[in-house]
Amino acid sequence: MPAKQPTGSLSDLHEISAVQLRDSLRSGEISARETTAHFLARIAERNPLLGAFITVTAEQAMADAAAADARYARLRKSSAAAPAGGTAKDLPLLHGMPLAFKDLTDVAGVVTTHGSAALDHKPAPTDGAVVAVLKAAGVISLGKTQVPEFGLTAYSENRIAPPSRNPHAPSRSSGGSSGGSAAAVAGGLLPFAPGSDGGGSIRIPAAACGLVGLKPGRGLVPSGESSADPAGLVVAGPLARSAADAALLLDALVPSPGSSYLDAVAQEPRPLRIGVSLDSPWSAAFPFTPEQEALAALRAGRDMLEHAGHAVTEADIRYDNRYPDAFTTAWTAAVGTARISPHREALLTPLTRTFRRRAQQRSASKLNESLAFLRQFTRDTIAQYGAWDLMLMPALAQTPRPVGWFTGATHGDERWPAAAWAGDADDDYRRQCEFAPWSSMVNVCGLPAVTIPVYWTRGQPGEGLPMGIQLVGPKGSELLLLQVAAQLGF
Fold first, then answer.
1. Annotated catalytic residue 366
2. How many domains does the chain have?
3. From 17, 156, 177, 439, the catalytic residue
């Protein structure tokens, strides 16, 4: 469905695409203050239901928007002899664009909670890498979005703020760990948002909320996290409603003179050889059966790809069954070294507390062995994927889960946030791995991947729950993945 065009009314700014909003800001059709005020009003209206934001920085956002408008006015005055819109080339790429950052990422002067009740919540002294890059590109930050504690889980629930909910079905989770950001984009509280992905944290919430979610390859953009990452798993990337919007945000994250993802995203990709697989490195530890909705999404995606001229064939991928233990060791290493006062450890969620204790009990040699194994796993997996141009699999094995399903918590009633997590950590973790069994190995391999919302459980776009596919490409294939998403109509 084509994106809604600007009509001159400010009441529908959240309905137009991020690309159209950017163009309207750069042309002077709308101001940064008008845009910021509109999205802050959307947050005030919708966030009590969605729990997308932990912190809203309205006063600072309006001040930053006023500064953006003043800069625009100065440029316009100095270019008075130029035709209308002549100042656009002198503006930063995302002049006046509103967005927000995960509450794992430092924004100067704003508290970073890491989603944890066990930490002292103090304003960050400086901007994190992603924040600095995007502020330089002209964005206006509206606040910090909901995350699980330390970003560890595939759902965005913690003990400090209401859980993040799915805009398409508020009883369901928006996924994690970029769940608050995904809920904000899907719910029209933001035009797009940066997420970070260390084991599926962009792609899982994108799939749950019906968005395009791109995990770039290792090293292309700065990490979105402010914690140690010994396996190099975490990378920042866009959550957006279309491939074009994702390309625009990627252009800001990866400024490259003379080239643009947005300019090239609409180009038709060549016919591709695509391997389709349900194999997962988690199958040996946590045998699972994909739900029918996941298989229906895979069939829908395969049909779309074949209709577009690509050759899709079955792929038999073999993964070493030592993977689950090695990945878990690497993924949870940082939580073992987090600075948490002993008397506050009881405030951690059961999953964090359990994995922190285990990480602290592991020897350095155990971590090194796991990292060495993951390097070999990467070589083996990339060699197998190399028989195809792209790999295709479901984005998730199950429909978006109910809020509290992973933990047994009683969210959404008057007992929150005192409600206890009823389930144990290992059951929680198993459920997550069965929910999203095709995501973490992409981080280990450092490869780009995109999730595309190709299917809805009631048949029509926007009806029922979204389900998607994941396409994984070789190093440097971010543009190709976005081109395929755009080719499929997203």
1. no
2. 1
3. 177
- Residue 1 is assigned to a structural domain of this protein: no
Domain containing 170 equals: 10-487
- Domain annotation covers residue 188: yes
Reference 177, options 217, 224, 222; nearest CA is: 224
Q: Is residue 3 part of a domain?
A: no
Is there a domain that residue 382 lies in?
yes
**pLDDT, one tens digit for every residue, the chain (490 residues):** 334 444 446 779 999 999 999 999 999 999 999 999 999 999 999 999 999 999 999 999 999 999 999 999 999 888 765 555 456 778 999 999 999 999 999 999 999 999 999 999 999 999 999 999 999 999 999 999 999 999 999 999 999 999 999 999 999 999 999 999 999 999 999 999 999 999 999 999 999 999 999 999 999 997 645 457 899 999 999 999 999 999 999 999 998 877 899 999 999 999 999 999 999 999 999 999 999 999 999 999 999 999 999 999 999 999 999 999 999 999 999 999 999 999 999 999 999 999 999 999 999 999 999 999 999 999 999 999 999 999 999 999 999 999 999 998 654 443 444 345 666 899 999 999 999 999 999 999 999 999 999 999 998 888 899 999 999 999 999 999 999 999 999 9
pTM, rounded to two decimals: 0.95
Rounded Cα–Cα distance for residues 421 and 155 (Å): 14
CATH number at residue 437: 3.90.1300.10
Q: Which candidate in 17, 196, 201, 440 is catalytic?
A: 201
β-pairing verdict for 98-102 and 140-145: parallel
Task: Based on the residue annotation, tell me whether 144 is a catalytic residue of this protein.
Answer: no
Q: Whole-angstrom Cα distance, residue 268 to residue 320? A: 36
Name all contacts of 374-379 with Cβ < 8 Å and 24+ positions apart: 374/231, 374/323, 374/326, 374/327, 374/330, 374/444, 376/320, 377/281, 377/319, 377/320, 377/323, 377/326, 377/441, 377/444, 377/445, 378/444, 378/445, 378/446
| Catalytic annotation present for 17 | no
